[in-house]
Predict the 3D structure of the following.
Amino acid sequence: MSGTEIAAIIAAVAFAILVAVLCVLLSKVMKTITKVNETIDETTQTIVVLKKDVDVLMQEVEGLLTKSNVLLEDVNGKVATIDPLFTAVADLSESVSDLNAQSRNILGRMSSASKKSSKVATVKTMAGAATNILKKRKAKSEEVR
């Protein structure tokens, strides 16, 4: 065997080893690519499912917001309806306070009037106080309207 033949054999063995190493490497790369493709497919399926779920959720949220808006409008309307009631109650409580104050004044006048004057003067005082209370109440009810 000559040196050229030995060199050719060494080159052939080296080429065979290179081909074997490349085959193993390509096999591992193909397995990795297959796994990556599977992962991408699973990710794509997950995204599709999530998109469907989010679409359904968005529809439900939209319906809930619509119902909430209707409920809020209803509550606002009822509060607007009740507002005059609270105003009337406040006016009534003020009238009751005025009536209590006038009653105390009348009782004070009655006791002093009964000591000083006749029953007619007492009735006159009571009538005047009642007239004043009714005038104030009428004026307040006209202001509210």
The chain has two helices and no strands. The two ends are 128 Å apart (CA to CA). The helical segments are 3-116, 119-144. Residues 3-144 form one domain.
